[in-house]
Write a structure and sequence with these properties.
It is a single chain. The chain has 342 residues and is of the alpha/beta class. The protein folds into two domains: 127 residues, 3-Layer(aba) Sandwich (Rossmann fold); 163 residues, Response regulator (Rossmann fold, 3-Layer(aba) Sandwich). It is 41% helix and 19% strand. The strands form three sheets. A six-stranded parallel beta sheet has the order 2-1-3-4-5-13, sandwiched between helices.
């Protein structure tokens, strides 16, 4: 993106400076507005909120959040936080793009940050956060292709928007790379990277949909499934729990679902991490230290903004050779010798 630029000046801050700015931090309030998934969605809203909580614990800031029950709540929720009570307002989700832009342009002295969206040209008082989740998803697709026993893996999304389909793109291309490298023919159900057609629940809330979509993919032979649908994916994990992980494994998204969905942790092969907590914390720190600028930060494998979670209870099921291949591919993506964009 031509307007993309870093808004962090001197990220490595001396300890003495942090101590000197503690009074300013204690008077600083960071506010978050969730999308319809809610603050405890075990996904991106909760992960973003963790970044604010980390800033509260480590920097001494104050915090608030509002939950959106529907898209029609976005602008009223933003308006309710205007007026000086919030030094920095975080809006979480691609669907906040229009509302955040409207509010930011109408209130140029209010600092905003939006997760999963950025503006070109940049808006001076909005820090956009984007994530190269296709990089980590590429690793997940390679892993799934190397682990499947049926030769079929699957994916589905919540809503057909770029922050969702970028996971699916990387997953499919990672599986394709495995096929090319190993002479296999693993197929991926649920998403066509060329036609941009695939399976979508059209919501981020219904666990019943998550179960039903996973059931359909399982019935077609998939034994590893990547749901890219926030809390909807918890329904897929419920099905895997009932079937047993030998029959169906789930790959989580956004947070490490081994920890955020502990009752079904045994069904997760891994999770594709989108480290919104890290980028949210960095934006707060920049605002406190008066180095905030409008622009875009992009989380990548190289800067740990995205990653693949540990295999946890399934670690012994992943061969040493496959682990080594994944690490080699990780470094090749960072070096630029492997492109995840096709």
């Amino acid at each position: 993106m031509s307007q993309t630029r870093s808004f962090f000046k001197g990220f490595a801050i001396a300890a003495a400076f942090l101590i000197g700015s503690s009074a300013a931090a204690s008077a600083f309030t960071a506010c978050q507005i969730t999308d319809v998934g809610g603050i405890d969605d075990n996904s991106f809203n909760q992960t973003a909120w963790k970044g604010i909580q980390d800033a509260e614990a480590q920097l001494g800031v104050q915090s608030r959040f509002l939950e959106s029950q529907a898209e029609t709540d976005y602008m009223p929720n933003i308006n309710s936080l205007l007026g000086g009570e919030c030094d920095l307002i975080f809006t979480v989700g691609f669907l906040f793009g229009d509302a955040t832009k409207q509010a930011a342009e109408a209130n140029p002295d209010q600092k905003f940050s939006i997760v999963d969206f950025a503006y070109d040209p940049a808006i001076p008082n909005v820090a956009g956060q984007l994530f190269a989740t296709d990089e980590a998803a590429f690793l997940a697709g390679y892993l799934a292709a190397g682990m499947t026993e049926t030769g079929i893996i699957g994916t589905f999304g919540g809503i057909n928007i770029p922050p969702v389909t970028i996971f699916m793109d990387g997953f499919v291309r990672g599986a394709n790379h495995y096929n090319a490298r190993n002479g296999t023919d693993v197929s991926v159900l649920g998403w066509n990277v060329d036609s941009r057609e695939g399976l979508f629940t059209n919501n981020f809330e219904s666990l019943d949909d998550g179960r039903a979509f996973a059931q359909n993919l399982y019935d077609e032979g998939a034994d590893i499934i990547l749901p890219v649908a926030g809390p909807v994916g918890l329904g897929s994990a419920t099905l895997a729990d009932e079937l047993g992980r030998d029959s169906l494994k789930i790959i989580g998204v956004d947070a490490d679902l081994y920890f955020t969905d502990p009752e079904k942790r045994h069904v997760y092969l891994t999770s594709i991490l989108k480290r919104m907590d890290s980028t949210v914390f960095q934006v707060i720190e920049a605002a406190i230290n008066d180095t905030f600028e409008g622009g875009t930060i992009i989380g990548t494998l190289e800067n740990s903004g995205v990653d693949l979670a540990p295999f946890h209870d399934m670690d012994a099921l992943v061969s040493d050779d496959l682990k080594a291949e994944i690490e080699t591919i990780r470094q090749a993506i960072i070096d630029g010798t492997i492109s995840v964009s096709g």
